[in-house]
Amino acid sequence: MGGATLLALGVAPAQAEGSRTSYIGGWERGHESNRWYDGNADSTSSIVSLSTCYTDSSFNSATLNLYQDISWNPDRNVGSRVNYCGLSSWGRVSAGSYYFKLSDFSGGSRFTAENVYIAW
User: Which residue has the higher pLDDT, 108 or 1?
Assistant: First the structure.
């Protein structure tokens, strides 16, 4: 079924609760993104999409870890994803504040992604 068919049946495609665009400019391993709040008000997956990726050497992949920010306790690691300059998804997550960490990447000591799209 195409999108037009779904709309004709009265079923709208899923919309993200929130989203943001950004960039990664020369991050070292371990650098963390800004936080965002996912109220778990929809059934949309939490995603991070990267494009135009490179390092100061030869880039192949980056490892991203999604964390739930927990006050006064260690943050909860939701899981890691290997990203080849594309989409990483963690599925639907519980309500809370989240961020991703650039855990690792191939080649060099600094990583850049000119376009970063985060949706939750």
Answer: 108
